[in-house]
Amino acid sequence: MQPRNMSMSGVVDLAAVKAAQEAKAKAEQARAERARAGDTGAVPPSGLVIDVDEAGFEHEVLQLSTEVPVVIDFQVPRAEPSAALSAVLERLAVEYNGRFVLARVDAEANQMLLQQFGVQGIPAVFAVVAGQALPLFQGAAPEEQIRQILDQLIQVGEERFGLTGIQVDASAAAERAPAEEEPAGPYDHLLQAAVEALDSGDFAGAVRAYRNVLSEDPANTEAKLGLAQAELLRRVSELDPAKVRSDAAERPKDVSAQLAAADLDLAGGHVEDAFGRIVDTVRQVFGEERDTARLRLLDLFEVVGPDDPRVVAARQALARVLF
What we know:
It is a single chain. The chain contains 14 helices and 6 strands. The protein has helices spanning about 10-15, 15-35, 55-60, 80-95, 110-115, 145-160, 190-200, 205-215, 220-235, 240-250, 255-265, 270-285, 285-305, 310-320, and strands spanning about 5, 50, 70-75, 100-105, 125-130, 130-140. It is of the alpha/beta class. Strands 1-6-5-3-4-2 form a 6-stranded mixed beta sheet. The radius of gyration is 24 Å and the shape is elongated. It has 3 domains: about 5-170, Glutaredoxin (3-Layer(aba) Sandwich); about 185-240; about 240-323, Alpha Horseshoe (Serine Threonine Protein Phosphatase 5, Tetratricopeptide repeat), CATH 1.25.40. InterPro entries: Thioredoxin-like_sf, Thioredoxin_domain, TPR-like_helical_dom_sf. Pfam families: Thioredoxin (PF00085), TPR_19 (PF14559), TPR_20 (PF14561). This is Tetratricopeptide repeat protein.
């Protein structure tokens, strides 16, 4: 998915004169109070990246945004594009040394926040400046482009709202005690074998390993997700992309052709296209063919994650077709 970039010109509405003056006054007052108390307000580097949820959002983000721009990373850590973007943002938060704070939000566990911000897909990045929210970009983006957006955000925060950032105390980076190793779970060796099989391209072997776990623990979330991914990769590895696309275009009501094309769509990151293709197929066929298409769509939902907004939308579209 290509990033949908948001121009900083949209901040003009947020930076109405009254709001800007109030924000500047609050920021100056907070700095003055800390100075009188002998508190520099310095935070350790670890404080530049925080995890927030719906319960703590007001205290941890809205209040903090009166001192420093807060970048909100709506993420699904298990999804590779989301995890990759989060890693870049975390590194930049440390590099920018207090000029913004990164707040990570688990999109699956905080659906209300997604609705409040109008998030349409994951990953999505927003910002809160002096209590005011604005979108930055959606989807993956090159690091150079992310830096440009952050620089604009920081400039707006300083010029419009008097947010000069927070001081970072590098000496406060206390050495962390080594984390205690969690005891190995009963299926860890099978799950590890499945991961190794995936890494080596042995998709059939990965499918067998995940099924072995599910045969004894049907509710194992990691195995369910892994099996759905392994089965998708196995199917795609056996396809001729050019032929699949040609067959799908020539035979719009051929369930096998459309499901193969949907697999390619999803493997290529075109999630909405994959879901839409199968929903359209379900609409055009009946009986066993309809059930085959419906079940494949449910399998693909597992690959993306049941709480992903695109899955939620596709479920609704499927229900409208079926009922």
